[in-house]
UniProtKB/TrEMBL annotation:
Protein name: Cytochrome P450
Similarity section: Belongs to the cytochrome P450 family.
Keywords: Iron, Membrane, Metal-binding, Transmembrane, Transmembrane helix
Transmembrane segments: 12-35
GO molecular function: heme binding; iron ion binding; monooxygenase activity; oxidoreductase activity, acting on paired donors, with incorporation or reduction of molecular oxygen
InterPro entries from the UniProt entry: Cyt_P450 (IPR001128), Cyt_P450_E_grp-I (IPR002401), Cyt_P450_sf (IPR036396)
Length: 211
């Protein structure tokens, strides 16, 4: 009797391991089956980088080509981040108008909270709606926008003169010019001074504003 009990105890770890392995296989299989059944069309991805290698130097053309193959709604993995790509006006209307509240939330990020105090990536809700109302009524109203007209006109004049001074033999990078223009307009409106693209500005003022 003692020998039989000893043999059972010796075999118990093996049987337990086999049972756990079988149950794990069943769970993983059904999870994979359910995911495959309900997931969106998606091109094959690579480990770690996902579908980044398929975007190439012209992402807009690559996305258009992929959408022709996989449809108007397509799932891409940008690194480890799953990203929904919408490639038709009807699908975009469904997401941005019909079901906008469902898609309004952004993934929470501790880094974003630390750097910009959840200012741009806050969760959709009553707090966010109040902030939006304040921005629309007090910061972006027609009267307020018109009050900054002189600043916009001055910056447009500066940008045009900068383009005119460029040598005729050298192509003008309009993207850089517009980037500088937008930066200068926003910094003058928000801080009443220039904050260049290298970050030379009163950071204390910026931090207090974000808080």
């Amino acid at each position: 009797m003692a020998n039989v009990s000893a043999q059972v105890l010796e075999k118990l770890p093996f049987h337990l391991f086999a049972l756990l392995s079988f149950l794990s296989f069943i769970i993983i299989f059904y999870s994979w089956l359910y995911t495959k059944k309900n997931r969106l069309p998606s091109p094959r991805k690579l480990p770690i980088i996902g579908n980044l290698h398929q975007l190439g130097p012209l992402p807009h053309r690559s996305l258009a080509s992929l959408s022709r193959k996989h449809g108007d709604l397509m799932l891409l993995h940008l690194g480890s981040k799953p990203t929904l790509v919408v490639s038709s006006a009807n699908a975009a209307e469904e997401i941005m108008k019909t079901h906008d509240a469902v898609f309004a939330n952004r993934p929470s990020s501790q880094l974003a909270y630390i750097l910009i105090y959840d200012c741009r990536v806050g969760k959709y809700g009553e707090y966010w709606r109040k902030l939006k109302s304040i921005c629309v009524l007090h910061m972006l109203s027609n009267k307020k926008v018109q009050s900054f007209r002189k600043i916009r006109e001055e910056e447009v004049s500066i940008m045009v003169k900068s383009i005119q001074k460029s040598p005729l033999s050298v192509p003008v990078n309009l993207s850089d010019s517009i980037k500088v223009f937008v930066n200068d307009v926003v910094s003058r409106v928000a801080f009443e001074r220039y904050c260049n693209l290298n970050g030379q500005c009163n950071m204390t003022v910026i931090r207090n504003l974000l808080k």
